[in-house]
Amino acid sequence: MGFHKVKYVLLPLLFWSFLGLVTAGSVRADNIRFYVDALPPYAVLHEDGPPTGFAVALMEQLMRASGEHFEASDVSVMTWARAVHHVEVVPQAALLVLTKLPERADRYKWVGPLDLLPVGVIARKDSGIVVDRLEDLLKYRVGMVRNTAPYRVLVRDLPEIGPNLVMLSGIPALLRMLREKRVDVIIQADMAAKELMDGEGMNADDYSTIFHFAPLAVYFGFNKSTDDGLIHRLQSVLDRFKEPDSSGINPYSRMREAYFGRPAPGVEEKKAE
């Protein structure tokens, strides 16, 4: 997969004094390896540097405020299809964006939620394709990234879709298939897909989201071997980060707005319906 130059300004680490949660003598997490794939603005890949984005910056805040070492250079890039499985089976591994589906709940340790991820059906505007309900997808070739939450939600809710699916390893490959008309539609986080289109020689204005799924709650997902004390400290920091300050606005929302350009929605644990 290619890397994509998308510029986001990382917020300075402004909130440590607010959190006040540095823990002396805590169990170090220097040997955890973090993984991510392109999913702007949560994770933005660069040819000449480590990943950036909201999820990377937020994890940096949580780790350092918990008394742990973290650098963006600690984050490795791996396709979503591989990373979801890798983090499940490899000790001391963590994924920076992972949807907490019911069937995944006992396979990882979780910190979050960090956001609600909008997912939709994306088609070329000139295709004339209309999707008013899930069953309409049975008329089309549907591109999806394997082993991801959108795939699991779709096959759960529309089991007969199997023969229509074209499975890919990552979002850039998915976009190329749509651009080359080798699939009729793709199902993906629509904001991320639109952000990545330029890098694949696509004009985002030529595509539209024609059907929306219920947003998916995304978390930081850790291998189950991860120290429970670390998970608890990270969750405590995140919970404090979401508490309003004297202005009535929480630092989490300020940080998110810097990356998304809009305030955070209500983030609660939910599953697609």
What does this structure look like?
The protein is an alpha/beta fold and 273 residues long. It has two domains: 16-115 and 218-260, 3-Layer(aba) Sandwich (D-Maltodextrin-Binding Protein, domain 2); 119-212, D-Maltodextrin-Binding Protein, domain 2, CATH 3.40.190.10. It contains eight helices and twelve strands. The chain has helices at 16-19, 54-65, 80-89, 149-157, 171-179, 190-197, 228-241, 251-260, and strands at 33-36, 44-46, 49-52, 75-77, 93-99, 109-117, 119-124, 142-145, 165-168, 185-189, 207-212, 216-222. The strands form three sheets. It has a five-stranded mixed beta sheet, with helices on both faces. A five-stranded mixed beta sheet has the order 9-8-10-7-11. Strand 2 and strand 3 (49-52) form a beta hairpin. The radius of gyration is 19 Å and the shape is globular. It starts with 15 loop residues before the first helix and ends in a 13-residue tail after the last helix.
Structural key phrases:
alpha/beta, D-Maltodextrin-Binding Protein, domain 2, five-stranded mixed β-sheet, 8 helices, about 25% strand, globular
Order of helices and strands: HEEEHEHEEEEHEHEHEEHH
Order of strands, widest sheet: 4-1-5-12-6
Number of helices: 8
Which stretches are low in confidence, meaning pLDDT under 50 for 5 or more residues running? Answer: 1-28, 267-273
Averaged pLDDT: 87
Overall geometry comes to globular
Summarize the structure.
The protein contains 8 helices and 12 strands. The protein has 273 residues and is an alpha/beta fold.
